[in-house]
Structures are given as C-alpha cells and as structure tokens.
Amino acid sequence: MNALYVVVVEMLCRVLLHVLKAVALAHALELATTAVRSWVWLITWGLPAPIREARRSEVESDLHEHQRHDRELGFEPQEIAVRILTRCVGGLHDDLSWRLQQQSAGELLQVCLASPLVQHWLQGPRARGLVWTCGVPLGCLAVGIVATLAVGQPHASTIAPLSVLAAVLAFYGGMGLMLWDTVMWLIPVRVVIAGLNERRMP
Amino acid sequence: MKLAKRKIGSYNEAMRRKPGVLLPLEQSILSVGLVLHARGVAEFHGFQLAKLIQEQQQARNLLGYGTLYKALDRLAEAGLLERWWEDPAQAAAEGRPRRRFYAVTAAGQTALADAVVLDERKQRETAAGWAVQGVGI
Questions:
Q1: Which residue in B65, B69, B101 has the most chain A C-beta atoms within 10 A of its own C-beta, making it the best mutation to test that interface?
Q2: Cβ separation of A91 and B45 shorter than 8 Å?
Q3: Does the model's pTM come out above 0.80?
Q4: Do the beta carbons of residue B47 and residue A66 sit within 8 Å?
Q5: Is A100 touching B (CB cutoff 8 A)?
Q6: Which of A13, A40, B62, B99 could be disulfide-bonded to B86 (CB atoms 3.0-4.6 Å)?
C-alpha cells in the first residue's frame, strides 16, 4: 500500500513539474517582465510619487524598447526573457543602494510601519501569532536553560522537557493564530464552526 | 599596524568619492552621449544608451536596470545631463510607453574633458612611478 502511495505521489509530482515547466516556457517573457516590474514596484514602494513614477515609467519604457529590439534581431521569447532577467539581476545591488540613498533605513522602516497594509497586519491575529511563534518559544527555552543551570542536575530532567514542550506548544499555537485567516477558511472545520454559530442564533 | 574596519570599508562617509570625480560608467555615458550628439542625435533614452555602451565596450550583457538608471539619476542631479519626458501623445500614437530623453549639458562636456585629462595624468604618473622603480611595461 505504501509503495503504491509513493508511486502515485511521484507520478503526480512529475506531472506537476512538467506542467510548470511548460507554463514557464510558454510564458517566459511575461514572467520575466512581471518579475522586473514587481522588483521595480518593490524598490520604489513608499517613495515620493514623482521619484517613484519616474523610475517605474523609465523601466517600463526600457522593457518595451528591449523587447522590440531583441525581436527585431530574431531572438526567441525565452532568450529575451533570460536577457531581461540578467539585466535585472545585474542591477540589483545598485537598485538597493539607490533606494537607501533616497531614504535611510530608519525612514524606510517608518514608511513600512505606517503603511495601511502593515497597520492592518499588526492589528490582526497574525502579529500576535508571530509573537507566539517566535518570541514565546524562545522565551520558554531561555527560561528552561536558565532554570536548568540554576537548579542543577537533580531537577534538570524535569525542567528541560517542560520548557521544550512549552516552546513547541507556543510555536504551534502561534502558527495557528498566524494562519487562521489565510488557511483555515480552506478547512471544513471552519464551515462546521460557521454552521454551529448559525444554529446558536435565535 | 591594525586597520580599523571603518577605514577600509567602502560604505562609510570617509570613503565616498569626491564631488566632481566621474566613475568609468559615468564617463562612458557622457562620451556616448557626445558621440551621438556629434552624429546629429541630440537626445537619447535609457535603452539606446545601454545598447551603445554595450557595443562600445564589447560587453556580453547590457547594463543592469539599476546600474544604468542610478548613474543617469546621479548625472542629472549633478547637472551633467539634462532630462525630460517625451510628449505622451507621441508615445501613444506610436503605441509604446513614453520615453525619458537625456542630453549632455555643457557642464557634462567640461566634466568629461576634465576627467579624461585627470585619467591621462594619473596614467602618466603611474607609468613614471614604475619607471623609477625599474618595472618594465
């Protein structure tokens, strides 16, 4: 039974890989230009509108001219995609240094924190989840280590597993909180909960 | 002698280049711009410039977007290049995004000439230094 399961999973994975490869080859140019646009969007995000729009428009025009030029030279779309991506990757470090020239790291952090998306996220369950997932488990482990060192050998075998258990519970609890909004709606449990809530309504 | 990290790192204030000094890429941009001007092309756009620099340097790849536009930005802010946007109506009529055109200013021409003179002087000094030390080239 196990062997059959492995074969089926392997077959599905192979089919999925072939499909992804075909899609990537067929849409290589679109994927490459989208990747460049996304990068430029990201690197100019939060900058004053004139600077942001100037850089985006300039790269948009460059992308257009580059594609037209390479098509005239007879390059295949996949080759053009590679050339475009090479240019993007070749300028990444300059993009980053340009961005830091426009705005210091502190200002960038302020812009990030003030953005509506981040504010929404910070006020939602995911921020609490992140604290539970990263902060609390580390805290539990730290307390466990300190306590183990403090009490010495006799009680160490009790404290150490308890702190690890607390860290693991906090981690999974945090993950649950973080993923509640994004993944849980896919799970029928949520449907059951909604059904129960409806039944409770008078 | 122990060297402090901030004295040898390239990302501190002390190691930033002096104002007025042109990097090789900036010199290439200005010289290509002037070559185009001599050929009767008064203005150029980013991709055109990247292509010409690739041909001039016989490089395998075109300049990266970040590298090219950061250098153009720096030159324009220093007043060595003049830049303006194309008329959107014209771009729309040709069915493409509008271009941003650049042209080398008089200050750009002077800066390039100064940079070339400085480079030649440095080369002469280096060669003279080697000759004094008895290193044959």
A1: B65
A2: no
A3: no
A4: yes
A5: no
A6: B99
For A62-103, the pLDDT digits (tens) are 999 999 999 999 999 999 999 999 999 999 999 999 998 887
Give the pLDDT confidence of B49-75 residue by residue, as tens digits. Answer: 999 999 988 888 899 999 999 999 999
Nearest to B101 by CA among B84, B77, B76, B79: B84
In this prediction, residues B91-113 reach a mean pLDDT of 94
Whether the complex's predicted ipTM is more than 0.90 is answered with: no
* Residue A100, number of CB atoms within 10 A of its CB: 13
Determine contact: A38 vs chain B, CB below 8 A. Answer: no
- Report whether A179 contacts A128 (CB < 8 A): no
State both tokens at A75: 């390059």
Question: Apex CA B34: angle with CA B28 and CA B40, to 5°?
Answer: 140
What pLDDT score was predicted for residue A136? 80
Give how far A105 is from chain B: nearest CA, Å.
14
What is the C-alpha to C-alpha distance for residues B133 and A33, in angstroms, rounded to an integer?
Answer: 54
